[in-house]
UniProtKB/TrEMBL annotation:
Residues 807-897 form the Cyclic nucleotide-binding domain. Keywords: Calcium, Membrane, Transmembrane, Transmembrane helix. Coiled coil: none annotated. The chain crosses the membrane at residues 71-94, 114-131, 143-162, 225-247, 259-287, 307-324, 336-358, 490-509, 515-533, 545-563, 575-596. Residues 634-740 form the STAS domain. One of its GO terms (molecular function) is calcium ion binding. This is Sulfate transporter. Residues 999-1022, 1064-1099 form the EF-hand domain. PROSITE patterns: CNMP_BINDING_3 (PS50042), EF_HAND_1 (PS00018), EF_HAND_2 (PS50222), STAS (PS50801). The lineage of its organism: Eukaryota, Sar, Stramenopiles, Ochrophyta, Bacillariophyta. It comes from Skeletonema marinoi. PANTHER family: SLC26A_SULP TRANSPORTER DOMAIN-CONTAINING PROTEIN (PTHR43310:SF2), SULFATE TRANSPORTER YBAR-RELATED (PTHR43310).
Amino acid sequence: MAVSIVQHDIEEGAPIIDDDPFDNHTKKILPDISENGSNSSNINGVDAFHENGESHDDHHGHAANPSYKSLIASSVVCFIIYFVFCIVFSSVVWDPLNSSLDPNINPPFGVAQGVGINLMGIAVGSVFFAWKSGCNAIIAGPDLLPVVFFAEAGTSVVTYLAASSAQALRSACADGAVADDAHHRFLGGGGGGYAADASADPCDLFHRHLAGDELYLDEASISKVVPTTLVAMMIGNLVTALVFYGLGKAKNTASVIGCIPASVVAGFLTCIGYKVIKLAVLITTGYSFKQKYIKNLGLDYWHQNDPWLPLTLAMVYGLALYAFKHMHIISTDKLILAFIFGPLILFFIMVAATGTSMEYLRETDWFLTQARDGAGCTQNCAFVFVNFWQTLQTVYGAFGSNLVAWGAVPRCMPIFIMGAVMTSLDNMLKLTSSEKALGIDLNYNHEMKLGGKATMISSFLAGSPAYGQTKFNVINLSIAGTSESSLPTLLLGGICLLVFLSGAAGNIINIMPRFLLGGLCVFAGVGFLYENLWEGRKKMNRASFAIVWIIFLVNFIWEFFVLQNLPKDIQPMVPGLLVVFVLGIVLSTFEFMFAFMHKAKDPSIRCGDVCCSSAVRSDKHDSQLAVMAGWFQVFKVDSFVFFGTANTLYQQLKAHLAKQKVTLPKAERTKYLIFDLSEVTGIDSSARDVFYKVHRLLKSEGINLVWAITNPKVGEAFEDQGLYVGAIHFDSLDLALRHVEDELLRKAHHLSEKWLVNQTVRDIFQRQVLVNVFNISVRAEEKSFASSRLRPWSKIITLSSGEELCGDDDDNLYLLYSGEVQVQERDGSHFDCFTGSFFNLDHVLVSVGALAGLPATIGAVATKDSTVLVVSRKNFLLMQKQDSALGQKLLLTLLAQKEANRPGRTRTRVPYMDSSDGSDEPVPIHGVARRLLAGDDYKISLTDAQVERFSDVFDLIVAPGETEIPMDDFSSFVSMEARLLGSALSHEEFMELIDKSGIDEDGDGSLSKEEFLTFLRGLFLADIPSKEVESLRQAYDEAVAVDPDALMDEVRVEALFKELGFDMKSSNIGDIIGAIDADNDGDVDYDEFLTGIGMMKKQTILSKQLDTAFSNYMNQSKAAKRELKRRSTVESDSQTVPNRRSLLTLNKKAFHSMGKPRNIMEQANLEDEEGVELTASDLMAFLNIKRDEAEEMVFLADQDEVEVDRIDAVQELTGINLNCHRSIDRVEFQQLLRTWS
């Protein structure tokens, strides 16, 4: 859909969208992107006064305690500004008809009554919107766009009536030899001309030097002008009301409006701008602006006042006002008030200084006048008191008489239909701009229906259309300081109603000079032209911008050159606006055809478990990301995005987030949202406005926004409009997914570190990091393994950013240690490799016959400074022979990565544990396993295979010719390997960790091989009592004897460990078998079995230490709750609320941790239950953390499938969260330390 194309200003790094020449007085930087304000996007000339500078995003336009003074002041300021605009609106319609009004009506119907029509629209609209709108502070009323169409309709009515009068005029002239021009009446300023000057000869061509649009009317036709025009306007209002209501009722507001491309709307707005400039000339001078009269401008004419003087003043006034608005020097309300009262005061000071009378100024057309006032004045009369019922009497009285020329109404219908469509579009865009300006969300369909109802009631009361006006909404917010109170809206409606009933509008019109009213029109018209014909180039591509200019030039040529040469009775039926409206439909069709060469699909939502980056990660990280899969989603949009598509996406997003609120606890809801625009070919500028709303919605929900945009033009448009501000953006979905995955893993690391308040847990956590680094298991079912196993078969190289690697004939295998590499493929595509990824693997697989066809990779380039491990094809083949287990493992890993190395692959969720059968209950160790804990005088050694593998690693690290490794070098090796596995620890942290491990036994600052192997033995193994060795040997022999010809494989060893009394749930038997069977022959001999016993004992000791830590956590939590409950009771008895300092001191002393507690009194009142599992409230108590973090920690650890008590939307709005019965048992606690280390 289209939204008006307008100004693009950048101030303080944020976008300004000013779509409307009156509305563009609003400077509003998007509230969800910058702290500087909001923005507007309207299409007509009167709706954008946004407050300069102040952001309303943080409080969504809600002041804590707005004063009645500010609320009343807001309504008064809005009335003053709106009333002046009502005079402008009325002048546009009724001043050109001034000399065509019925002389029998006193005072004659004209500008003053037109002001009353607009005041009625404001009164009705304000009441309706204050009563039923989604935002009670929305101010509703008429605007310039429908006024322009009403002016066209008035011209059409007069032209129709003039047709019946033309013959009489021709007969009155000599022998009918009157030029074809003769029935045009000379329009002097203030309604002079034939009707005003009875002595003027209508056949005298000299008197038509600067003739305008009015046609000759006889007395019968003159009496029909006002009734027919009012009836036509009423019908036009009803058409608009029905379109408003129909769109809202059918819930098709966005989709129908979305059928108009922004370029077509922008072009149409330039035509409106040109029309408004013409009206400014007419209001200021009384002359129409047409090519056929330009040649006569230099001739003498009988007017006393040179029309160029007020026109020049109007031009200076309008351009100056627009310039000040465009530069955002002061706030809109102050600017407009200053430009209303300042020139008025200065003008009347000059009048007083020169002694000029008001009567003379009216005679010389400085003011709007009427032909008579009913009190004796018959020319250039001031406006007088108006009976408020005159309009209603005229329009409804016409239905029962012959005063309505019904034949003129069908001629107006194309104008009304065109006006209804454009006004509906204007209404829709004002809704979007009001949302951004006020920081609220509106139901477009409801607001459209409401506008339809208000406009319908207003039309029956002979009022104007009524719909929300952004400029006044922002003025109201800036003065009142709130968007919640309906008082300013109701007061404004009441003031307008009182002025309407008083009939005092004419007295105010008498002091409004023509140049000021014309200047406001210039201000509006210039905004339309500049912001679409010039600034529009920043928002649209060349083709769309060319369409804007085509529409404008066609309208200009038609209006200025062609239309006036058509027959007079045909001219009103083909106005320029109608011509360009049809042209716009044609251009829209072509633009849609080009944009939708590829059919657009509906936006889709995918969860994180089916959206994975191509990054190769460890089993543990994949498991972690599977648990956190619900924390991020991908919204995919393709093809060309119009407003309708973007709005569908926005509504889908809102529904998705709303569903989460009533089905998921906060800890399990979305944290990151990726918008995948990688297949988008283009975005209509109106659709980009919807993305501002997306930005604000996600910010309000605390969700991180990530853009994935491949098309450079789309990316440039987003950057120019400030959509990248406050969000992360990437050139591909794969990069975006990788970033989100990395951020989630960092978040998981941050949360897991909170457990380390217990020193035992911290030591075990750090030990697990080292275990991961020196893991030598090559089990085939493990997706990844420590790269240290590959180091003896490879070399390390460093690449600078931009350096190329591996050509089409390169058959080396590469493993990325750090940095990023982009791999180019034979089909022209490319993908990005991240830390831990192999690349060029298809060359290796093809060369060994594991993959058919040609290798896809033809090259690679480092996109960042990178470190790469290189395994040559020769070494790869040698590995298959000399270390078959490693070779097999590597081959399987490469095949698995080849399959998985693509964006969008699925990630298997960790299955929930079924606790209904009690299978997750701890199994106490017993028998031999229990006795093994009684001593450690028997030293268990590493297996020969382990010694060999670890020695290879040592030889790899040590410098050539050296026998020891400096501790700093060893720390660098460990930190590099750990980062390859995803560790977030820094090099300094690893240095501290290694120093604490005591690996450097002699303290000489270097590491010998013996110290290295001793360190690893202590890392993996625990010694056992010597008296149990014989029983272990006997148990092993008995197990072998059961089936002596079969291998002592994993299944049999696991059964033996269980028989010896080990708790198999608290240990990872797969890791142990993979480590002791390092040669991967599938047969565990006695020595390997004994090493396995040492590893099982190590696991058992660690498990018992974690059980102790788990119990300490439980006890600390209970003690904290009891103490807080006791203190709460004591302080409650003394009616003293505990201060923040005392609560912090209590938590520091009890739990040795820092931080501000949240909802601490709520926790103090919890009952002291003797639970055996940790809950979020327990973590809050003993870790002194916020509830959100506590619930997230429990969610990550809990492997049970739990039920969630649903809540409804009302409960969500009142702050009631979902009741999720999650908790952590001891098995989950131990698994947590292994999984999240």
